[in-house]
Every structure is written in C-alpha cells, then in structure tokens.
Amino acid sequence: MGLRVGFSGYGAAGRYLHAPLVAAAGMEVAAVATSRGEEVEADFPQAAVVPDLGALLARSDIDLVVIVTPNVLHVPQVRAALEAGRHVVVDKPATPTRAEAEQLAALAGEKGLKLAVYHNRRWDSDFLTARRLLESGELGEVAALRLVWDRFRPQVADRWRDRPAPASGNLYDLGSHLVDQALQLVGMPDWLQADVFTQRQGGVTDDGFELLMGLGRMRLSLGVSLIAAAPRDRFRIEGILGTFRKQGLDVQEDQLKAGVTPFDPQFGVEPEVQQGEIVAPDGSRRAVPCERGRWLTFYERMRQAIETGGEVPVTMASAAQVIGLIEAAHASARLGRRIALDPDGRWA
C-alpha cells in the first residue's frame, strides 16, 4: 500500500498547491481536517473529512501530515504531529522564529521522523533558469542579484495574512520565498539592511519591503510591493559578461488553480512572452529559454525520503536560516542599521 497523507487545512494553498501534487507523486490523500468538506469531497471523494488535527492524528492510517494552516498554528501543529509519530510537511514560512524551527528539527531527529518545509519556489521556472546561468558562468563574475515579487493589490483584504500575528505580513509571506531563493543561488550574505513598511490604507501588517544584502563585492536586493501596476523584473542578474532579466511569475500556481495537472505537457512551461533575455555589454540582446518549472519534484522527493530513509527535499535546518534572516531584517528595519551575519546567518 502507498503512503497515506492527512491534511491539516484545506484553503487555497492546501487545495491547489499541495493536494494535486501529493496525488501526482503517487500518494493517497486519505483524510483532511477542515470545515470545507464539500471541496474535499469534490476533489478526493475517498478522503475522510475530520473536524480538527486531533481527530486526524487519532487515525492509525496516516503516514504523512501536511500542515497548511495559518502561520501562527504551524509550530503547535508540527509539534503535535511529530509527537504522534507522523512524518510532516509544513508550508512556508515554517515558524515565526529560528529558535522554534531548530526546536522542531531537533524533535523530528529525536523521533526518527521526516520533517520538510514547502519551499516550492526552488522549482520555479525562473529560479531554475537563473541557477543554470550562474552554474554555467555564462554571465561571468556576478556583481548584483535582484529578486522582486510585485503585485497590484491596493486594498487590504480581510484574511489571516493581513492581520497582526506572529509570522504575518509580506516579509514572512512572499519574503520567505525570495530569501530562500537568494540563499540557494549564492549562499549566506555577510550583512543585511532592510526597510519594512506598510503602504496600503488601513494596513496593519507590513505589505512591502526592500532588503539589501552583501556577500563580498556582490550585492543582493530583494523587494516586494503590493502597489505595482507595472511590476519590475522578477529576476535580474548583473554579471561582467552580461545581464539576465526575466519578467512575469512562474505559471504553476495559476495552472494548478485552473485544474491543469502536473502531467500535462505544458505544465510548468513559461509562455514565450515571459522568456528571459541576456543583454550583452555591447547592448545586443538574445532570448533565454526558461527551464520547465516542476513543483512535483518536492513531493516526489518527500515520498522517496520516507520510503528509503533519504534526505527530505527542503530541510527544517535550511528553512531555519530563512527565518533567521527575516528576523534580522525586521530588526534592521526597527533599529535603522545594517546587521552583520555570521556564516550560518546568525546575528547579535
């Protein structure tokens, strides 16, 4: 019998960004703790609907628990699932603090269980393309890397992400993706300085930020705006042999919400208008075909890790570094100064 998966939460993230990939990876969506029973029945008629995490963990047929609840619930729910002897995937951001992330990682180790964090943007089309270019040396020595995630959402919505709570706000929400991508591409910076702000009328959590980091001579800048009708380049890498630039977001989220399956030949394929380009020092331009995005890789590797005892696709230790930099960025914005980082991303 294949691995049986239980979900804690079945909002948009659970329904569209996790469950279809769990099923495509050859695992069974066996039970869901949610108040959205009609949606579960429509998507996975064989799955049981239970009222809460306690009822989910009381079942003896669940091997892996996927936690896609509001951020403030991640820590207690991950801990409860591990204490109940279940492997766990938790959506990003993993925890409000690095200390909590490290405590959960230690608990998983003590229990001999697999714990992974859903940093799915490591398998975005643009990220995979940028990584390919950096590994090839095609751009030469890199002077600057800029990652941006702009949206036009000027109205504050009545949703948990926009309410004050631990791990709320856009630095945790979208920023966790950008920080993780930057760390995966070039490694831990030596220092950072941040401006974290709220621009929308009626906003009570941060909705935008600008984060500058230094790694030797290289500069990394990450930014998010929710008042950007004309978004900036999503990726921009400036090297001595040319500049790579790419606009538009990875297509997998929209495809999953539209019901496109990961097995569709066009799944994860960027439209031609969103292909990147390299601008050479002489001003000439050439198109750069993007790699095919593949979020399915995360759950394929998670299944393999459970079945073979191998490494999970994204470790909690890796996610803890992301959270540590987000904490440092908030501190930098609050103190109005640059913060030095050690090689593990810790700061004083």
Q: How many domain regions? A: 2
SSE succession: EHEHEHEHEHEHEHHEEEEEHEEHHE
* Rounded Rg: 20 Å
Number of helices: 11
- Poorly predicted spans: none
How many β-strand stretches? Answer: 15
The CATH class assignment of the largest domain is Alpha Beta
End-to-end span in angstroms? 49 Å
CATH architecture classification of the largest domain: 2-Layer Sandwich
Strand order in the largest sheet: 14-13-12-11-7-10-9-8-15
- Might you state the CATH topology name of the largest domain? Dihydrodipicolinate Reductase, domain 2
What features would you describe in this structure?
A hairpin with a 5-residue loop joins strand 13 and strand 14. The radius of gyration is 20 Å and the shape is globular. The strands form 2 sheets. Strands 14-13-12-11-7-10-9-8-15 form a 9-stranded mixed beta sheet. Strands 3-2-1-4-5-6 form a 6-stranded parallel beta sheet, with helices on both faces. It starts with a strand and ends in an 8-residue tail after the last strand. It has 11 helices and 15 strands. The mean pLDDT is 97. By secondary structure, it is of the alpha/beta class. It folds into 2 domains: 133 residues, Rossmann fold (3-Layer(aba) Sandwich), CATH 3.40.50; 188 residues, Dihydrodipicolinate Reductase, domain 2.
